Every structure is written in C-alpha cells, then in structure tokens.
Amino acid sequence: MRQLLLLLGLLLPLGAQADYSQHPRVPDLLGRLQSEFGFSAAELETVKTALAAAQSLPQLVRQEQKAPEKTETWTQYSRRIDASRINDGVALLRDYAPELSRAEAEFGVPPAIIAAILGVETRYGRVTGKVRVLDALATQGFEHPTRSDFFFSELTEYFVFCRDFGYDPQQPLGSYAGAMGAAQFMPSNYRRLALDYDGDGRRDLWNLRDAIGSIAHYFRRYRPEVSWRRGEPQIVPAILRANELPAGAQVNHKTLRHYAGELMLSGIEAAVPLPENALVGLIELTLDEGGREWWLGLPNFYSVMSYNPRIFYAMSVSQLAQRIEQARAEAERAVAEPPP
User: Fold this and answer.
1) How many whole angstroms separate alpha carbon 174 and alpha carbon 194?
2) Pairing of strands 173-174, 235-240
3) Helix count (H) and strand count (E) of the chain?
4) How far apart are CA 61 and CA 145, in angstroms?
5) Exactly one of 121, 154, 157, 325 is catalytic; which is it?
6) Beta bridge partners of 17
7) Between the chain's N and C termini, which has fewer beta carbons within 10 Å?
8) What is the pLDDT of residues 111-165, one digit of tens each?
9) What is the tens place of the pLDDT at every residue in 179-213?
10) CA nearest to 175, candidates 122, 114, 232
C-alpha cells in the first residue's frame, strides 16, 4: 500500500493553495482584461475567484525548463518515431480522410504532417494533459524565473478564452505549460487559430476533427514569414564530402541560413538535387552510438518549428510524417496487389 501511495504521489500534481488573487501583478491582469477585452465587473470577480483557488505547482516550472526537446539527445528524442505512432498515424489518415483532405485543399498542409503533429503532441488525442490549465499558467506566469512574461500573457488570454468559449476557468486540463487539446494550443493560439471543423458550432480542440483543421490553419496563419508552402518537402538528407565543416557553415539554427549552391561548392551536397538559389538550413544530428547525420531543412521544416522552436521536435515530426506516408502507401499496395 505504501508503494502504491508513493506512485500516486508521483503521478498527481502536488500543489499548495497560492491565492494568486493577491499577487502584485494581478491589477495589471485585471486592467488588461477590462480595457482590451471588455470584461465586466462580474467577469473580473470570476477571474479573482479563480486566482484565489489556483494551486502553486513549482514542479511545472522545472518540467518546462527540462522539457525533452531541450535536454534529450537526438537518439532519445527520436524514439517518438515508433511503430505505435506510425500505425496509429496510418489509421488516422484512413479514419479522418475527409477532414484531412479538406485541410490539405484549404491550407496545403499534407495529411501526414497533421497526423505527425497529433502523434508527437498527444498520441492522437489520447494524452492531452492532466494539469489544470489555471494552475499551470498561474504558477508559471507569476513564478517562472525567465519566461514569466510569456506565461502571464497566456494567463490573460486564458481568462478571455474561458469567457468566450464558455468554460469555468477552474475546469480545463492541459499540459504542464498550459497547452490544451489534441493539438496542444496555448490559449492565445486557441482563440486566434482554432477552427470549428465538424460544424457543431464549437471550436473544440479535444475533438480530433476540429484539431485537424486547426493545425492546418495554424501552419498557414500563425506567422506569415514561415507560412506552409504547398507541395514542398521539409527535409532532404545531406552528404558531407569533407572531414569537417567548411568555414562559415552555421548548424542547427532556427532560421534558413545558406543557399544550397553555396553549400554544394563547400562540400555539402543534398541527396536529391536542389536549385542553387534554394534557401536551406544545415542540420546536424549526433547519434548516441557514434556518428552524425546531416540534413538540409527547407522552408516547411521551419514552418514546423513555429509549432515548437526546437530542431529535434521539427525533425521528429518530419520523419514521423515520412514514415506514416510510407506505411500508408505500403498498406494500399498490399490491398491492391494481394499475394498470389
């Protein structure tokens, strides 16, 4: 029994009543809600009541600081490209084909990319988080040592989201960072980019149909300079002809840094031909067992990074999408050409 209780203690959030309604930054929050979003006196009281009931969960700050995409090696992180996610991704392509086809037609985002986002983020909607969003955003908005301004802004957006979408602020559950639903949108993106894709009058990101349309919409509308480019790939393998990188080569940056022709002249070649004037990013993946992989990231790779600005994340989504599409094609061939 003692071991069971210890296990439950590890699984459940441990917090303390914080009464954040007395925090020095609360007047700023309430003032913004009133001036920018037209909150009434009664609605502001609802906010204060929720803040008074919020739990302080400092372990969420540590979890954010040590997120896997920040701390794991590529070998560890790439385990997300597993058979389960590939098979479930193929099933998603089959079961939600109308919604995925519509999303591709409207926004240009391929079904396999949408499936890979859902697979990496929440295992296709099965793991959407068990932390109260109120607690996650209040703790990090008031206590995070380096990113409190970001989370404070999202806490403000969360209260607007709850009012406009009809949620009690003390009810929705999400990730340690306050992301919600199968698509794991933060409140600001939920308000701005979520779509009602099943026509029921609600934008519900816990609903896979709405999540599919919203992910595609995100890639087209989140930030114009990294908007998804219809019909273009994300990555191509690269070959390093020399034993070392040429002078001036910049690796694993968050933006496009080189022309493909420039890299080719310095001994770094794409495994498939690219236009010499194509802008690319040079990506190095170090393997735990030794050795390195080289890739060229194309504009759509950096569009994926707008969802999570980490090389490992975007690479895992890109490679998982490739594997899902390959598995889908193989399954279709097997049906079309049964063995004799």
Assistant:
1) 16
2) unpaired
3) 16, 9
4) 8
5) 121
6) 55
7) C
8) 999 999 999 999 999 999 999 999 999 999 999 999 999 999 999 999 999 999 9
9) 999 999 999 999 999 999 999 999 999 999 999 99
10) 122
